[in-house]
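B., you asked whether I could sanity-check this one before it goes into the benchmark set. Here's the sequence:
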Amino acid sequence: MRYVVVVADMKVGKNGDMLVTHALGSCLGLMVYDPEAQVGGLLHAMLPLSRINPEKAAANPFMFVDTGVPELFKKVYDLGGQKKRMIAKAAGCGRPLGNDELFKIGERNYTVLKKLLWKNNILLDAEDVGGAASRTVHFDLSTGQIIISSNGVKRDL
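And here's what the prediction gave me:
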């Protein structure tokens, strides 16, 4: 099955599934995968910290990096994924409006992600973050392959 992950959303799946998200600018795209269980998930989080709107975070934890990342891992664990085998990759966290962007949402999303992963003893295996270009992610849960498309160019992550 092919699942599209919209902004402030998350999907998990298993062997045979394809997860896709579009228009990663300042948003975080986090992909986690257990190659042995062949399960994984994709989070498309908008904002770094849920404390700016706890009600929205309670209604949709995937809107925020600090609440969405733990939920992503929990859902993948529920499918049989194990932390010790988990591969984590990130995309997005850019500056779509250029270096003069006032709130630096992309940089802050990336900082919150790195702190969360560090506290939980998880390292990113690969990343395609920063810059001004928007990204589309195709995540094949049969193989764990992640293809990033940006400005007409496709590359493996």
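One thing to flag: The longest helix spans residues 105-119. Otherwise nothing jumped out at me.
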